[in-house]
Design brief:
The complex is a heterodimer of chains A (58) and B (169). With 58 residues, chain A is of the alpha+beta class. Chain A is built from 1 helix and 2 strands. Chain A has one domain. A two-stranded antiparallel ribbon of chain A has the order 1-2. Chain A is globular, with a radius of gyration of 13 Å. Among the domains of chain B are: 55 residues; 58 residues, no CATH class. In chain B, helix 1 runs antiparallel to helix 2 and helix 2 packs across helix 3. The chains are: A alpha+beta (58), B mainly alpha (169). Chains A and B meet through helix 1 of A and helix 1 and helix 2 of B.
Chain lengths: 58, 169
């Protein structure tokens, strides 16, 4: 996940992951996995594209 | 959260851990506490999601629903909850006591080196009436010591029943 350092204070890291997971399951965003890197212990990065505007509220 | 995403989460933590300053032990501690925090969050979320849209009647469909239904019922009946907890406490206490005694009396090995090799010898030829274990005299003991080829060491002991004869020692 990009910008994982930028978790706002007061928000649990787990809550961010869960929210992204739920949004993806609902089809509101898509994420992709990058190539694994040695810095991450041979694990891939989950990339979520940034969007400038959210969905319009009803 | 599938395994690939879980793997990427661990990768995030690993990357952050390597970037952190401070001692390796503290960084490792941070890694595990954060990972556990995320895990608890995921489990809690799953339980909450399982129970959120279920009525108590249909709560038996999932373990999360069962758990929430049980907590709800226990909160609604504090008397029953208190009684059940007291019974649990008594049961656990009684079991602990019984097993402590059983361990001390039956299960704990004898306070000797290699107690499974300990043997007891007696005189099988000269038994007293009513006893299958015959007395070994000092000469018997000395003979055992002389012919011994299997025992690492041995000791003789004696005992008496003070009460039955009414005499003093």
């Amino acid at each position: 996940m990009k910008n994982s350092n930028a978790t706002p204070s007061g928000v649990a890291r787990g809550a961010v992951y869960m929210t992204l997971d739920r949004l993806e399951k609902k089809g509101l965003l898509t994420s992709m996995l990058s190539e694994p890197t040695a810095e991450r212990g041979g694990r891939a990065t989950r990339c979520v594209p940034q969007w400038t505007a959210g969905l319009p509220t009803r | 959260m599938d395994s690939r995403i879980a793997d990427s989460v661990i990768g995030d933590l690993e990357e952050l851990r390597r970037r952190r300053s401070g001692s390796a032990f503290r960084n490792r501690l941070w890694f595990w506490t954060t990972a556990l925090g995320i895990l608890f969050h995921a489990v809690g979320r799953r339980i909450a999601a399982g129970a959120a849209f279920r009525s108590p009647r249909s709560a038996s469909n999932g373990i999360g629903g069962d758990f929430c239904h049980a907590v709800r019922l226990l909160r609604q009946h504090p008397g029953f909850t208190t009684t059940a907890m007291l019974i649990f406490a008594l049961g656990i206490g009684a079991n602990t006591t019984v097993f402590s005694v059983v361990r001390a009396v039956l299960l704990r090995p004898l306070p000797y080196h290699e107690p499974e090799r300990l043997v007891f010898l007696w005189n099988g030829l000269e038994t007293r009436q009513g006893s299958s274990h015959g007395v070994m005299t000092g000469r018997h003991v000395a003979e055992v010591g002389r012919q011994n080829a299997t025992l690492e060491s041995f000791a003789a002991f004696t005992y008496w029943d003070e009460g039955s004869k009414g005499g003093s020692i």
